[in-house]
Amino acid sequence: MQEIRAPITGSMWKILVAPGDAVAEGDEVAIIESMKLEIPVETDDDGTVARIHVAEGDAVSEGQLLLELDE
Amino acid sequence: MVEKVLVANRGEVAVRVVRALRELGIGSVAVYSEPDAGAPHARLADEAHPIGPGPAAESYLDARTLVDVALRTGCDAVHPGYGFLSENAAFAERCAAAGLAFVGPSPEVIEAMGSKTRAREIVSRLGIPVVPGSEGPVGSARYAADEAERIGYPVAVKASGGGGGMGFRVAASPDDLEAALEAVRAEGTRFFGDPAVYLERYFEDPRHVEVQVLGDGEGAVVHLGERDCTVQRRHQKLVEEAPAPTVGTLLRARLGEQAVRIARHIGYTSAGTVEGLLVGDDFYFLEMNTRLQVEHPVTEMTTGVDLVAEQLRIASGLPLTVRQEDVTIRGSAIECRINAEAAHRGFIPSPRTVTAYREPEGEGVRVDSGVALGYAVPSFYDSLLAKLIVWHESREAATERMLEALDDFELEGPDTLIPFHRHLLRSRQWRAGGTARDLLGDRTWLKSTAGAAARAR
After folding, report:
1. Backbone angles phi, psi at B334, to 5 degrees
2. Catalytic residue among B10, B227, B252, B291
3. Contacts (Cβ under 8 Å, ≥6 apart) of B321
4. Contact A8 B383 (CB under 8 A)
């Protein structure tokens, strides 16, 4: 299980994957809006999206768990 | 003179305006969003009122609430600062309709200059060069291609309602044009509610130079010299200086005369800025900003004119305190924007809590700051935390003073541009008065500006 955490405090603007989706290292899985910029959230590893812990529009804090991947 | 002013803004500019109000003995009312409760601007003002949650659309951009607070608290004027509603003609109108003096130009002038295509038309009719570009917005891709051929590549594609680096792409050749048009249309729609785009010649290494003007609305207009704001990232300014290193006395007089001519022609009231590109000695008009600018302190430091105090006097119907013949430019001033950003990581923003804070002090050193120890920098707004401004007799001496002040500026918690500025001001490019465009585009160099190494002299 791999955890993807928010790289920055902001608001969850877009979630680009759904549970069951296969992702590869470096894929953009979400976009956080912070300080008037869009900050992409990328995976560090290949895997399958297992759980998503946030919804679009949610406030997120730096380090917060966003989603989990099964390897 | 106005007696009580609502400051419709936040952060360092709200602090700056409240300070001016206090100095002039004018009452001050601050407003704050939920995450800004207890922010320095709110604490410094005589009164502070909550106006809604974090998102700007529900707080600092809520014109009706702002006017309501102003009326409820007995204000007779509103200072909009910069950004937010400062260039919103409908807000200026709403203030006027409520009997509040808007500290800025008339809604008609804001409207005329707010549309970049209209502003270009007005200025070129005065015989002042504008950056070669399309005649108004380009509707079809085919018309855009024809116009781009006429203007010459590379071509900048810009959103009509754009600004602050949003809604801008460069097409290097006809092959890139369609993608650039589509991208900018999408950004224009999303950020400004306006899909209109126009084209301009794109210059490789121009300087960004702007002229500060003041008008009293009764025909008196003066200029206070120019600022050079060439050092930018994502088309947003990072370092500004006055005077511009490549502008001499004759060119200054010409730029000033042109800016005054524009301001006089449109009946300009309050402080405004004529922005353009300088390619050699050729100045091309870009736009006029109908508000106070972030970088106004460098002009204050070199001319001794308090621009916010002048704005407040003008809004009160009083004449300017300066005549053109009294304006002298003395020494050299530099401003470094202390943004919550990590330059070494592609300028990624860093909205965190301030865990250590100490401002530099000393002769010729000024700090305009919107943060304090313990303040949690919100993620809802732009990343400008504070501005460090220094003055000295020469550009070289001012650079040395800035480097010392940067070393003395303690700001921990968020990543900031302090290490970036330390590197930049020591660079050969800066010292030679170059544009430093190569450094700003150099990822390796940007990475080298990371924290610790920067301290070594």
Report:
1. -130, 140
2. B291
3. B305, B310, B313
4. no
Q: Is the ipTM of this complex over 0.95?
A: no
Q: Which residues contact residue B82 at a Cβ distance below 8 angstroms, ignoring those fewer than 6 apart?
A: B9, B13, B291, B292, B293, B294
The tokens for B386 are 């504070």
Nearest chain A residue to B340, by CA: A35
- The predicted model gives B422-441 an average pLDDT of 95
Q: How many other CB atoms are found less than 10 A from the CB of residue B124?
A: 13
Helix axes B107-114, B89-97, angle to 10 degrees: 170
CB A22 within 8 A of CB A45: no
CA distance B322 to B358: 35
Distance, CA of A22 to CA of B87 (rounded, Å): 47
Q: Which residues pair with A23 in a beta bridge?
A: A47
pLDDT digits (tens, 9 = 90+) for B294-336: 999 999 999 999 999 999 999 999 999 999 999 999 999 999 9
Cα–Cα distance for residue pair B181/B179, rounded to 1 Å: 5
CA B201/CA B212 separation, integer angstroms: 24
Mutate to test the interface with B, among A8, A9, A64 (most CBs of B within 10 A): A9
User: Closest Cα to residue B12, out of B265, B373, B339?
Assistant: B339
- Tell me whether residues A34 and B349 touch, CB distance under 8 A: yes
Cα separation, B256 vs B234, in Å, equals 28
- Predicted confidence at residue B163, as pLDDT, reads 66
Chain B hits for A39, CB-CB cut-off 8 Å, are: 348-349
Find tokens 């707010």 and name the residue.
B114
**Exposure letters B353-363 (e unless 16+ CB within 10 A, then b):** ebeebebbeee
A25-32 long-range contacts, CB within 8 A, separation 24+: A29/A4, A29/A66, A29/A67, A30/A4, A30/A66, A30/A67, A32/A6, A32/A7, A32/A8, A32/A60
Consecutive H or E run containing B17: helix B11-23
The reply to whether B94 belongs to the active site is no
Which of B132, B6, B5 is closest to B60 using CA atoms?
B6
Q: How crowded is residue B98: how many other Cβ atoms within 10 Å of its Cβ?
A: 14
**Nearest one of B113, B14, B110 to B66, comparing CA atoms:** B14
Number of H helices, E strands in chain B: 16, 20
